[in-house]
Amino acid sequence: MTGGNESCTAGPTSMSYLTCLTYILEEWTGVEHIGDYLSYAFYILWLLFPLVVVFVLPGVIVILIYVSILLLHIYKRKNELKEAYSHHVWVGAKEMLATLWDGHGRIWHGYELHGVENIPPGPGLVVFYHGATPVDYIYFSARLHIMKKRSCSVVADHFVFRLPG
């Protein structure tokens, strides 16, 4: 049985890939004018895409917070015996979480840290603004730990101290 869609490029007129796909879907589903329905679906998807992005970012941050908690719990269970003999058992966990959060900040937000050389070797004060979530502090402390192997003490909202790590 020879149909009109055996080869979309063969025949008297060649058609584009999307036109060919639309023609095949029309024959397969039996729905006429499926291209109109697909263009409407793509329009709705384009219209709702910003709303989806708004809910995806907080979801990813919450998932990363729970992954951090899980990784710390696993690390604690794995190193219970070593903790009795070493005072620096949590160095590996700090490195792991700093890498996780720094990677998220770089990939998702393009986070960079400039001016670290201006932080004095002794005590210092870093003042910055955070938005609705204190995720920028997490990115800052992760990047500072990776670059300088320093911890940062914070004066912040109560919510920051409820975060894991």
From TrEMBL:
The keyword Repeat does not apply. The chain crosses the membrane at residues 43-72. It comes from the Eukaryota. Keywords: Membrane, Transmembrane, Transmembrane helix. One of its GO terms (cellular component) is membrane. This is TMM68 protein. It comes from Oriolus oriolus. The lineage of its organism: Eukaryota, Metazoa, Chordata, Craniata, Vertebrata.
